[in-house]
Design a protein that fits this description.
extended; 29% strand; nine-stranded antiparallel β-sheet; eight-stranded antiparallel β-sheet; alpha+beta; 18% helix; 9 helices; single chain
């Protein structure tokens, strides 16, 4: 019994550890991953009318202030867009009725989980082109300092098809924010984009060919994690791009890494072209044999091979069922049908009543001419073909010879791209109320982290306070991971079952109760025991226990 209890305790311990690990995973996903920062949180006195009614505590919000060198910040808390310019131009290569950038922008708080006093830039129109931009404090030049771009997005109504990415507009002489459009040169495009079931997180940079000056977009590899949740949970998410002078990059969502790589090896198309290319003047010789197998020229069709034998033949063992009605048709004319009054035999032809199943056949195994069912022909072999053998003249798959690539170059420093001096949002969306907030461009990680703690961190705290209870969270988690129901059932049901098994009191017999006499049972119990006396009856034995 002790060994039995030991195994039971060990099993319960394992289940508890598994449940605890899963709970920790859920907490890690939901909790704000914010660097240490000073956040003022006060007890809810019930007197604040500005706070979200769903928030269980009052937060004191202060517009974040950068703690170091920055190239650009935007919080929108002043309720104005004084530093931003809405585009007044038209989109090229688009129908005139939709080509104008007439989508509306507003500065307003979040719909849900709002932080009192915190405002953001909101894309208000659906199925329209939007374009808005702002100048940096000074241009960012790609030299020896890293680039850190960070901002917040909330798809408040979810997202059907549309983007929320930002563009870092190149420092060109003809840059005009009033005429900002889809073909305005940019250095980097970064941010979320979704259409259909394709969930993307763009990082695109424009690279200039050092030989001919052509500019080509380079796309980073796809994120290493599933991004669907950030488009559907209607929460504010933090997007961060780290780009380093050594050509390495890393992308974060909510301060968790989702993708990393190198500008030299992890973008498509690659920055540097191949050293060798196929010779366009080379062509395959006419006698080049690419056939790995050929029909055996010495093979001969067997004499008994009948190519004309059918694949199916009537079953010779089949017997017509008893009661088969050979003289009854399967279908008969509907007896109650009448020719329509407007039927014109010259135009419509001779009228015939519609056909219906023959009622006489309903009780019979079948009607009409009986034919045996068809079965596979055991003699069928099909068209004869010679077996294949290795081709003695096989030369392999032909490919053109390689020559030196006349367009080859080697750029080992793609980080040194064209400098930029403005931030722009040029978007089309089928969903409205996309929320943007707290843009920052800097070269210092500590500055970006503190900025996130003072802004996005508060939003995460408020959203966490409004999260459903533990049981609701467990149910939501099980919707995404159905196997969790097994863990829940084992966690709750197994301890109860074990408790019933080991702790339920055993029923002892009444000392004076007459029970059936059973020699086998008595023998298994070792015969007569001390303290047990018996009084023989016809078919019973009285047992007294002392």
């Amino acid at each position: 019994m002790k060994l039995r209890w030991g195994w039971t305790c060990l099993l319960l311990l394992c289940i508890s550890m598994a449940t605890w690990a899963q709970k920790e995973e859920l907490d890690d996903e939901e909790e704000a991953q914010v660097e240490d920062g000073d956040v003022d949180i006060e007890a809810d006195s019930g007197e604040s009318s500005e706070a979200d009614a769903n928030v269980s505590f009052q937060v004191t919000y202060k517009t974040p202030v950068p703690t170091g060198e920055v190239y650009f910040t935007a919080t929108f808390d002043d309720e104005y867009l004084s530093s931003w310019q809405v585009s007044k131009t038209m989109k090229e290569d688009a129908d005139e009725d939709i080509a104008k950038y007439d989508g509306k922008w507003e500065v307003e708080p979040l719909k849900e989980n709002k932080v009192p006093g915190d405002l953001g830039l909101v894309l208000k129109s659906r199925a329209k082109h939007h374009a808005i931009a702002a100048l940096l404090n000074r241009p960012f030049v790609f030299k020896d300092k890293p680039l850190i771009v960070q901002y917040e997005v909330n798809f408040q109504n979810g997202i059907d098809c549309g983007g929320a990415y930002m563009k870092l507009l190149s420092d060109s002489e003809d840059l005009d924010l009033d005429r900002f459009h889809d073909r305005t040169p940019y250095s980097i495009m970064f941010g979320p984009d979704k259409c259909g079931e394709d969930y993307k997180l763009h990082f695109i940079f424009r690279h200039k060919n050092p030989l001919n000056g052509d500019v080509e977009e380079k796309h980073s590899k796809r994120a290493d994690v599933d991004l669907k949740k950030i488009y559907t949970d209607k929460k504010t998410h933090l997007y961060t791009l780290f780009l380093n002078p050594d050509n390495s990059y890393e992308i974060f969502v909510d301060q968790s890494s989702v993708s990393r790589g190198s500008l030299l090896t992890d973008v498509v198309p690659p920055v540097n072209p191949p050293k060798e290319v196929d010779d366009p003047k080379d062509s395959k010789p006419e006698d080049w044999d690419e056939r790995a197998k050929i029909p055996d020229p010495e093979a001969v069709k067997p004499d008994d091979w009948d190519e004309d034998a059918p694949a199916k033949v009537p079953d010779p063992d089949a017997v017509k069922p008893d009661g088969w009605l050979d003289d009854e048709p399967e279908f008969v004319s509907e007896p109650t049908a009448e020719k329509p009054d407007d039927w014109d035999e010259e135009m419509d032809g001779e009228w015939e009543a519609p056909q219906v199943p023959n009622p006489a056949c309903s009780a019979a195994p079948g009607c009409g001419e009986w034919k045996p069912p068809m079965i596979n022909n055991p003699q069928y072999k099909g068209k004869w073909k010679a077996p294949l053998i290795d081709n003695p003249n096989y030369q392999g798959v032909w490919s053109p010879r390689k020559i030196a690539n006349p367009d080859y170059f080697e750029d080992l420093h793609p980080f040194s791209m064209e400098s930029f001096r403005a931030v722009g949002l040029e978007l089309w969306s089928m969903t409205s109320d996309i929320y943007f907030d707290n843009f920052i461009i800097t070269s210092e990680k500590e500055v970006a982290d503190r900025w996130a703690a003072d802004s996005w961190g508060l939003k995460k705290l408020v959203a966490s306070a409004n999260e459903p209870g533990v049981f609701s969270q467990l149910a939501l988690a099980a919707e995404e991971r159905p196997w969790l129901w097994v863990v829940y059932i084992l966690t709750v049901g197994l301890p109860i079952g074990l408790a019933v098994l080991f702790c339920w009191p055993k029923v002892c017999p009444d000392p004076t109760e007459e029970i059936p006499f059973n020699f086998c049972t008595l023998r298994e119990r070792g015969g007569e025991r001390e303290g047990v006396t018996s009084q023989t009856h016809t078919s019973f034995i009285t047992v007294s226990v002392t």
